[in-house]
Amino acid sequence: MMSDPAFQGLNVSATADGVILPVHVQPRAAKNEICGVQGNELKLRLTSPPVEGEANKLCIEFLAKKLRIAKSCINIIGGEKSRHKLLAISGISPADLLPLLAK
């Protein structure tokens, strides 16, 4: 599953209806992008500031577009007010996740 070296160490957990993905968000970046893995989390740089849930909203929108799924399939289940978030993503398997993140 972790064959892509860019995602070595990423801690993705399979669930009954999808995956649990740990994410590290860096707000106020120059552009929205996936920066690889930091620790065991997927590192995202997002342009929005970390106020009033803007970074959370953009995090969900950015990943939904990247993974080609509806925004409603992604829920923040931990770390809503932290840079370290835990996302539950339904409708995708761990094997399908990495190739889509790499694009």
TrEMBL record:
- Which superkingdom heads the taxonomic lineage of this protein's source? Bacteria
Gene3D superfamilies reported in the protein's UniProt record = YggU-like
InterPro entries, per database record: DUF167 (IPR003746), YggU-like_sf (IPR036591)
- Name of this protein: UPF0235 protein GURASL_11650
Q: Which family does it belong to?
A: Belongs to the UPF0235 family.
